[in-house]
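User: Could you write out the 3D structure of this protein bound to thiamine diphosphate? I've included everything you need below.
Assistant: Certainly. Input first, then the structure.
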Amino acid sequence: MTETLFKRMRDLPSAHLLGAGTPMCAGCGGLQALHEIYDVLGGNTVFVNAAGCMTLLSVYPFTPFRGSWLYTAMASAPAGAQGVRDALDILLEQKRIQPEDDLETVVLTGDGAAYGMGLSATSAAIERNLSFLYLCYDNEGYGNTGQQYSGATPHAAATATSKGRMGYVGYKKDLFGIWAAHRPAYVATVIGAEPLDLARKIETAKNLKGPRLILALAPCPTGWGFDPQQSIEIGKLAVRTGIWPLKEYIDGHVIHTKIPKPREPAEVYLKTQGRFAHLFAPKRNEAALEEIQQRIDVYWEGIA
Ligand SMILES: Cc1ncc(C[n+]2csc(CCOP(=O)(O)OP(=O)(O)O)c2C)c(N)n1
Ligand code: SF4
Ligand SMILES: [Mg+2]
């Protein structure tokens, strides 16, 4: 029975593997990005996951993937990836597996782990030049536990732990810049709503060795407060307003892969989400809205 089930899962196209039947919210932008990424990466992957929404994909002893899945403590996924990579290298060296049977080691975590709890383990793994791909789906908060703020939460967003007139008083951390400062093999931002840009970047990352980050903005209907059917449009707006720059770091250079011209005003994006509603009613918070717009304009000065 179990064997038949395994075989059936192995033979299914990935659209079925990551589709209906998963206990995820409708319109989940993280799942959409993962789905698209997996289509390009293929089945020769082993996922190393830290606690978060995507952990729900794995219901022991099954996962929706063709390869394996290792669950680690929240701060330790890159350390887990080191163990997996080392084991694969030993098997290769001893010729107990052939090069074509080698697996890509993929860390899969949310922003809470990537921007915060797991950052130290990540920095150390990059320092050791570990050959791994880090996939972070960034829903800008600790989504699985009720959207508390994380190091990825944008300024002024309301979260379960940032209520009141101002929302989150901090600013989103620049994880792309933190990774690039380590001079890894590759860093890229992507979004499921721009699948061609995403596919090209995954193809690039797949053909490289060394530490690689794919950072996917993950519109989250539940945590951000919008109707699931708006998920793709909100993803596109994040790009068109310049809030989520699509870019890559390779060979020491940063290249913007899609420059929004003309850029739409930030508030077109902010207005779509309940987490920013307090900026518009009962009274417009002009100071906060201006600050948000100004920071975006400063970012794009000299680029677009
Ligand atoms: C050390 C530790 N602290 C807290 C938790 C509880 N916890 C489980 S999932 C989660 C949220 C993780 O946030 P993120 O990495 O952004 O993933 P998301 O839930 O948004 O998918 C937390 C805090 C945990 N598993 N381990
Ligand atoms: S809370 Fe957000 S990130 Fe988590 S499954 Fe739901 S939509 Fe996806
Ligand atoms: Mg998160």
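Residues 52, 110-112, 139, 141-143, 150 surround magnesium ion (ligand 3) (CB under 6 Å).
User: Perfect, thank you.
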